[in-house]
Amino acid sequence: MNENSAKERSTHCGFIALVGRPNVGKSTLLNHFLRQKISITSRKPQTTRHRILGVHTTADTQYIFVDTPGLHHERKKTLNRLMNETVERVINDVDVVFFIVERMAWTDEDELVLNALRDVGKPVLLLINKVDQVQDKKRLLPHMEALSKKMSFAEIIPVSALRGHNLDVIDDVARKYLPEGQFLFPEDQVTDRSARFLAAELIREKITRQLGDELPYEVTVEIENFKDQGHV
């Protein structure tokens, strides 16, 4: 490729929402895409509270991910209501939606997310996560066929966020649905969040993992003093 054609390369850039019920692996998927942790994970559902903007850049495509809290039925508590409203706003602001579900399972909360996506008017890619845990892979195809009848998904892709299975396929497929355009972030940037915010989130992750069910969802970490020493 000569210098002029390189300058004129067609680039794609767009926003992708990661949505799904609590604890299906949205944050793990985002972290694996970015090859570093920016969204906290825990076995405790609803760990993610904030819209985390992650940026994954390849030679010709910039994928801008918005990680969302898991949609759920319980709307009585203020925090839960705000989490649901956050998801609804995110869906309206993106170009593509990744709807993440768990292998060989479909719950009422999955149905809740599906209903929220029916009229979004944009491509919805169904990612069936944790397929590495399926012992008999022959069961996957009938399961995928059953899910395809629930909604007209743009694509259905089996993945493993933890193992990185099929993530390269997602890159190639998602690019088709992103608009052409210049990159919005520097190619080496992976998030719009500050180091101070990420540090607070990592502390909150450790707390939720250590204390588990003893800890309420409403835990918040506030850093009073932060010093960047430039190394770990």
The CATH topology name reads Rossmann fold
Helix content: 25-40%
CATH architectural arrangement: 3-Layer(aba) Sandwich
Distance between the amino and carboxyl termini: 40 Å
Number of strands: 6
What is the overall pLDDT average?
76
- The tally of helices reads 7
Order of helices and strands: HEHEEHEHEHEHH
Q: How large is the radius of gyration?
A: 18 Å
The side-by-side strand order for the widest beta sheet comes to 2-3-1-4-5-6
- Name of the CATH class: Alpha Beta
Largest sheet: 6 strands, mixed
Uncertain spans: 44-49
Beta-strand residue fraction: 15-25%
What spatial form do the alpha-carbon principal axes imply?
globular
Q: CATH-wise, what's the superfamily?
A: P-loop containing nucleotide triphosphate hydrolases
Whole-number count of domains: 1
Would you tell me the structural class of the helices and strands?
Answer: alpha/beta
